[in-house]
Amino acid sequence: MSRTFIQCGDVLTLTAPTGGVTSGTPVLIGGLLVVPRTTAAQTLPFDADTEGVHYLPKATGTAWTEGQLLYWDDTAKKVTTVSTSNYRIGCASAAAASGDTSGYIKLNGHAVPTGA
């Protein structure tokens, strides 16, 4: 292990943004989508998953296939297949029907700007 190593990074302690965070409700911190493990008021620290498979709210109207790239629509607060003006956050870990309101996504743990 190198002397610069701090932690794995799959769980980070972050500062809750305006409005705070709710456990299990995805939130965008900069360009990184995280899933809070705890509920915290704004400016307080909270632990959040940056990776792993999560069952998150899904935009309806489009089906997902396994491995398909997925994006976070921060306006609608839902995962979508639309890349334009959204944040790439991972891929589908299971297929989802167009009418499904949630789906399984493997978070990539990377901060990726809109349209990238």
Relevant terms:
mainly beta, 9 strands, 116 residues, 0% helix, globular, 2 domains, four-stranded antiparallel β-sheet
Short description:
By secondary structure, this protein is mainly β. It has strands spanning 11-15, 27-29, 32-36, 45-49, 51-57, 69-73, 78-80, 87-92, 102-108. 0% of the residues lie in helices and 40% in strands.
How would you describe this structure to a colleague?
This protein has 116 residues and is an all-beta fold. It folds into two domains: 11-50, no CATH class; 53-108, no CATH class. Helix content is 0%, strand content 40%. The strands form two sheets. The chain has a five-stranded antiparallel β-sheet, with no helix packed on it. Strands 1-4-3-2 form a four-stranded antiparallel β-sheet, with no helix packed on it. A hairpin with a 4-residue loop joins strand 6 (69-73) and strand 7.
How is the secondary structure organized here?
Elements: E1 11-15, E2 27-29, E3 32-36, E4 45-49, E5 51-57, E6 69-73, E7 78-80, E8 87-92, E9 102-108
